[in-house]
From TrEMBL:
Segments passing through the bilayer: 6-27
Keywords: ATP synthesis, Cell membrane, CF(0), Hydrogen ion transport, Ion transport, Membrane, Transmembrane, Transmembrane helix, Transport
Location, primary (coarse class): membrane
Family assignment from sequence similarity: Belongs to the ATPase B chain family.
Subunit structure: F-type ATPases have 2 components, F(1) - the catalytic core - and F(0) - the membrane proton channel. F(1) has five subunits: alpha(3), beta(3), gamma(1), delta(1), epsilon(1). F(0) has three main subunits: a(1), b(2) and c(10-14). The alpha and beta chains form an alternating ring which encloses part of the gamma chain. F(1) is attached to F(0) by a central stalk formed by the gamma and epsilon chains, while a peripheral stalk is formed by the delta and b chains.
Function: Component of the F(0) channel, it forms part of the peripheral stalk, linking F(1) to F(0). The b'-subunit is a diverged and duplicated form of b found in plants and photosynthetic bacteria. F(1)F(0) ATP synthase produces ATP from ADP in the presence of a proton or sodium gradient. F-type ATPases consist of two structural domains, F(1) containing the extramembraneous catalytic core and F(0) containing the membrane proton channel, linked together by a central stalk and a peripheral stalk. During catalysis, ATP synthesis in the catalytic domain of F(1) is coupled via a rotary mechanism of the central stalk subunits to proton translocation.
Taxonomic lineage: Bacteria, Pseudomonadati, Pseudomonadota, Gammaproteobacteria, Oceanospirillales
Source organism: Halomonas alkaliantarctica
Cellular compartments annotated: Cell membrane; Endomembrane system
Membrane-topology descriptor: Single-pass membrane protein
One Pfam family it belongs to: ATP-synt_B
Name listed for the protein in its UniProt record: ATP synthase subunit b
Top-level taxon of origin: Bacteria
């Protein structure tokens, strides 16, 4: 077999020319296009990654915001609940205080009314008892009782204090002797003598009767009185009972 080197050389030249043409005309534009496509794809991938990152960041921020809103809502609900409980407790405490005040006021009012009623009943009972005693004592108003009161008055005149004696001396011409029943001349003389001894001179006495005394003999002046009767004793009893209520 004979090898035609010229033909082989021409074919080799043709191949080289074809490779050169392909590399110049076809392969470089295709490579450039592929490179551009790759760069575009990389840019798109980069943009997509950036968008994904931004989306993830936005999602995280949104999630955090939602969690913050939820936490804030829970806080607000908790504060509202606590405020409502405080308000309810305050209203309940005020209502309790008002109820206690009303109960206490009712107790005080009831106590005052009870005390007032007790005082009134005691006063009525005291007056009734004194009235009954006065009526009973009126029946005992005898000369013997009158003589006893006369003796007590004479004794009281002898025991007058300096101040009372001075008051009696200043009213020398206005001394009244008041008795439950009319005194006889002997009793009048006895009293005149007793007052005279107290004053150091014989006085001018005026004698009157007053059944309201029940029994007894008293001396009255414009500024002095020497009480000595059952009426005076009953008045003291009423006063003592009133203070004891």
């Amino acid at each position: 077999m004979t090898i035609d080197f010229w033909s082989l050389g021409l074919q080799a030249v043709n191949v080289l020319i074809l490779v050169w043409l392909l590399s110049r005309v076809f392969w470089r534009p295709v490579a450039t296009a592929i490179k551009n496509r790759q760069e575009t794809a990389n840019a798109l991938l980069s943009d997509a990654q950036t968008a994904k990152t931004n989306a993830e960041t936005a999602l995280a921020e949104l999630t955090a915001a939602r969690e913050g809103i939820a936490a804030e809502r829970d806080t607000m609900l908790d504060e509202t609940k606590k405020a409502s409980e405080r308000a309810a407790n305050s209203v309940l405490a005020n209502a309790h205080k008002k109820a206690e005040a009303l109960i206490e006021e009712a107790k005080l009012s009831n106590a005052r009314e009870t005390n007032a009623l007790r005082v009134e009943l005691t006063s009525h009972a005291s007056l009734l008892a004194v009235d009954i005693a006065q009526k009973l004592l009126t029946r005992l108003n005898t000369p013997v009782v009158q003589s006893a009161f006369l003796g007590l008055l004479v004794e009281a005149i002898g025991q007058l204090s300096a101040q009372d004696r001075q008051a009696l001396m200043e009213a020398e011409h206005a001394i009244e002797v008041i008795s439950a029943i009319e005194l006889d001349e002997e009793d009048k003389a006895t009293l005149t003598q007793a007052v005279g001894q107290a004053l150091g001179r014989t006085p001018a006495l005026t004698f009157q009767t007053d059944p309201e005394l029940v029994a007894g003999v008293e001396i009255h002046t414009p500024h002095f009185a020497l009480h000595n009767s059952w009426q005076s004793d009953l008045a003291k009893i009423i006063q003592a009972l009133s203070h004891a209520v």
